[in-house]
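Recap from last week: sequence in, structure out.
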Amino acid sequence: MQHSWNHQNYAVPPERLKLVEEAIDLLFAWDKFVAKPHLLGYRLTDDMHEGAIYFRPSAAARALEEALDRLRAGDGDLAAALVACDELDADYADHSGILVSGPAEWENLLARAERLERERPDLQIRVVDVLRPGDGRAPTDFLYQAFLRIGLLTPPRNTFEIQARKG
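Predicted structure tokens:
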């Protein structure tokens, strides 16, 4: 049997599920195939078993977020570790990678993310880093990379890397 990745799931504080839905709908052109009070699902291909992302409301996610907020306000080692994770080079942080059709779609998605970051601070979308072929920091001469964070998702699993291949 050949194994392959087929989905990713995020637990979110229940009161954030509608905002997460709005952020995803405005940022990505993903096919939303389920939107229920207990499950929000998008597929990235025609087959939901070949690439899907799910968001589920969870009181435990709320409790974790509240605990993290209390720690961020403190001076302890864990608070410093959380800050360090947020400031870590995006390519070294936990993230989900999504390949789009090409540089034009990638540029459009990046522009949308930058606009939403400015115009919709309630969605907590942030462009963390952008690497284009030839910019001196890019790891290859053919790969476009943009790292986007959706702060509504509990850190450190709130980063999406959007990639496109040149030519």
